[in-house]
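Q: I have 258 residues here and want to know how they pack in 3D. Can you give me a structure?
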Amino acid sequence: MDNEAELPTIDIKFIFRRLSICYGGLLGFVTVLDFFGIGSPVWKSLGWWGYIALILLSSIVFLMWTSISIYNHYRKFKKKAYLLQNQTDIKLIRNCEELIQTNIDIVSEANEILLMTGSRSRDKTYFKAIESKLASNRRLIYNRVLWGKPFHTSFKNHLLQVLSLRDPNSREFGYKTVYIGIFENAIKEPERFVCANEKRALVVLPSFTGGLGCYDTAIIFSNSQDVECIIRYVKELYAGSRSIESEEEIKSLITLVD
């Protein structure tokens, strides 16, 4: 399917066909009436005015019919354009390598805000990309929400490194630039894994290819309204979380695996 919807066109033959149906149909109708003598005196008394009235009536029918057809063509065009736009705004990932690389790309592309949810991460390349971005762009707002306790010591070390780069109490640019919270109410909200910046958002899905426990499937949103909804979701999640924005609080977390 093409990435652009084609503009609707009206064929000339289509126009003439409708003209013939309208004018021919009404003329045929009058001829039948005249043949059976129905309304013949009235029709003959009108003379040329009768033919002018017939032409005007045929023109009105033609214009109404053609206008409805053009409107229907336009509606189909708008629907196709909308579907194509949604197709280009959403992308499905089906392999682990692309998923991991997309996470890193989203981090690299962030200019205003960077948001993550989850406490299972252990990819050092991913951690390094986040830390480098925070170091190079001091105005960037970083928002991380953990789903319960972290799984790995490397994740804890990453959070400590984030705090060494950003002071949660600093207002150097007039606003807070680091938010770290832990969401512990699993009854209220299940785990949902997100990586997003101001332009793109990745949401992890159940595996389409590997089954249980596989990290290889995700959907990427690039429509501004969709991305804004996901950003709002993560912010609301942080608001319902317990803040862990000191070294002591992070060091006190007990890892679940190593």
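Q: Anything worth noting?
A: Strands lie at 90-93, 113-117, 141-147, 178-183, 194-197, 201-204, 218-221, 242-243. Residues 1-5 have pLDDT under 50 and may be disordered.
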